[in-house]
Amino acid sequence: MMLYMDTRGNMTVSKTISLAIAATLLAACQASTSQAALGDVAAAPFETAARPAPISSVPATEKGAAISSQVPPEVEIYATKEAGAGQKCMVGAETDEDGMNEKPVVYLSDVKAGFVWHVSLSIPADTYQGRATHCVASTNALFVLVQSDTQPQQSLSQTLLQVVKLDRKSGAVLSSRGIEVPNIFAAHTSWVEKGDGNFVLDGNSLIVMGRYELLSDRDNSSKKDASHFSVNISQNLSP
Q: 96 Cβ partners below 8 Å, 6+ apart?
């Protein structure tokens, strides 16, 4: 920087040099601003880049299409019944890794598309395990028989019977009803043996044919054979 004395004896900065210094500072400031702008442009692609969609966002229909048409090894199928329209109803039970604590399951399969849906059914609160053993189909619904045990020890357990009505399109539970042996008021156990003839859809009625045994006969080691029973109920499962 160059200084000179004015006529009054004051020290003054050369105007020419001052202008040059100002121009230099302005250029430096513009260059700094330009570099900062370039830095913003370079960062933008990382901020706006699309993230992969989480697996949970895949529509349920697409996830269902990827499910194998094979029944899992922990599921035992008790019965398979033709349901019409190229479909079959498959009923059984799913167990834990020790093969215990059965839970009833229902599969609707299609000859062309594989499994349409499958559901696990709840069992009564006072039972410890249950299995779906029979199935019949109407145009809009499936009717499933569930047999549940009250205790793990067979000699002490009672088997309770229940019919569950499922929506044919979705597998949703529409209604359910317990099956009681007619005119038997003493403590007893009841069951339905395998075979399509023991769970039949006849017009607007369901026919359940099974057997029962009084607990008193079992406790007394009676040699008396189990008795037979038959129950007719309406398709809407009303009492």
A: 74
